[in-house]
Amino acid sequence: MSSPLSKPQIITHIQKSLNYTVFDSKWIPCSAKFVCLGNFPSGTGVIQIYEVHQGEAQLIKEVEKPKAIKCGTFGATSLQQRHIATGDFDGNLNIWNLETPDVPVYAVKAHKEIVNSIDGVGGLGIGDGAPEIVTGSRDGTVKVWDPRQKDSPVANMEPMEGETKRDCWTVAFGHAFNDQDRCVCAGYDNGDIKLFDLRNMSLRWETNIKNGVCCVEFDRKDINMNKLVATSLEGKFHVFDMRTQHPTKGFASVSEKAHKSTIWQVRHLPQNRDIFMTTGGAGNLHLWKYEYPAQRCKKDSDGVDVGVAGSVNLLQNVTLSTQPIASLDWSPDKQGLCVCSGFDQSVRVLIVTKLNIV
User: Fold this and answer.
1) Domain count of the chain?
2) Which helix (H) or strand (E) holds 319?
3) Residue span of the structural domain in which 210 resides
4) For residue range 53-92, what is the model confidence (pLDDT) as tens digits?
5) What main location does UniProt list (predicted)?
6) Distance in angstroms (rounded) separating the CA atoms of residues 316 and 313
7) Within-domain flag for 222
């Protein structure tokens, strides 16, 4: 029998109460700082920067913005600049220099309605090719932006004429392992998951998981597609093996029910792509490890390759709050360090131990 202490532990290092609703929190790369994004009770937006110092989170900068801010990413910036791209409730995409965050360095009216989700690639030395930002909105569209190109998106994935517009809740980049290839995955409120191939400007694959898709994330953005995790409303998540696509069956997957409440987010550990954390609607965090099958692909009766799904093991879980934990971000620099924020108007810095022995 292994003792409980031999498993990874999820420890709250710092807990900070905020005077506003926080929707997203992100580590600032190569620093001991993190940024919180949200809105004040009056409806205006807020960007706060904190520095972790001697066991405390010290507020070093706060800026108020006209519109509530929903989401942010550092994924399309250089390590030297570390500009954050944000999406707000009015459909705006802004890029901010956190040293001088009063005026955006890039601004575009990206969508007609709220920007629910944002992701970046091609920056921070992650992923080949151009620095790009993808936004998904309640208006049903998914758009890809190049900050070097003003006003118009480089790609726009929207419903066909006459198709129902579905609320896009989540977007993620992947497959950016060379200068030509790149994919965007999007999840919608009706359970649709769509994989767009940006190289061929085509819909490569779609499926439906029968429940609103809250979050999708590839285990790595900058490799040949390996795994994709999709989380949903009623406590279920799906892990798709993205290496083998069958012409009719698509990608093999395994699903797991974590708990009864919504799984708001999934985030893969930067130092180990087979470990990921899910954040729950009842204030809980679950740490998982994916185990590969003996063979990742086999031949079907027609001799065509079909993927084989692995299994998922729960390493640890903890309840931090009675309210949903809506965002989580691992530190890219220190293994096991993460920041998460919830609808209890709190931000927490956590330490997860023993990740190198699981």
Assistant:
1) 1
2) strand 311-319
3) 18-261
4) 998 999 999 999 999 999 999 988 888 888 999 999 999 9
5) other
6) 9
7) yes
Question: Which token pair is 233?
Answer: 């409303």
Q: CB-based contacts of 204: which residues, under 8 Å, 6+ apart?
A: 183, 195, 196, 197, 245
Write down the pLDDT at residue 69: 97
Nearest to 279 by CA among 223, 217, 226, 334: 217
pTM: 0.94
As given in the structure block, the two tokens for residue 52 are: 């972790």
Q: How far is CA 36 from CA 30, 112, 116, 135, 293, in A?
A: 17, 24, 16, 19, 39
Listed residue (100, 31, 37) closest to 72, CA to CA: 37
Q: Is residue 52 part of a domain?
A: yes
Distance CA 121, CA 185 (A): 13
Q: Which two tokens stand for residue 17?
A: 């109460």
Q: What is the DSSP string of 1-17?
A: ---GGGS--EEEEEEEE
Location of structure tokens 């965050």: 101
Q: What would the pLDDT profile of 130-188 be if each residue is shown by its tens digit?
A: 889 999 999 999 999 999 888 899 999 988 888 888 999 999 999 988 888 999 999 99
Is residue 311 a contact partner of residue 294, using CB atoms and an 8 Å limit?
Answer: no
Domain presence at residue 36: yes
In this structure, what is the dihedral angle of CA atoms 32, 335, 76, 110, given to the nearest 10 degrees? -90
Alpha carbon of residue 242 to chain centroid = 17
Which residues in the chain show pLDDT less than 50? 1
| Domain-located, residue 280 | no
Please give the Cα distance from 290 to 269 (Å, whole number). 12
Q: Find all residues with CB under 8 Å of 214, minimum gap 6, and list them.
A: 169, 170, 187, 231, 232, 233, 262, 263, 264, 265
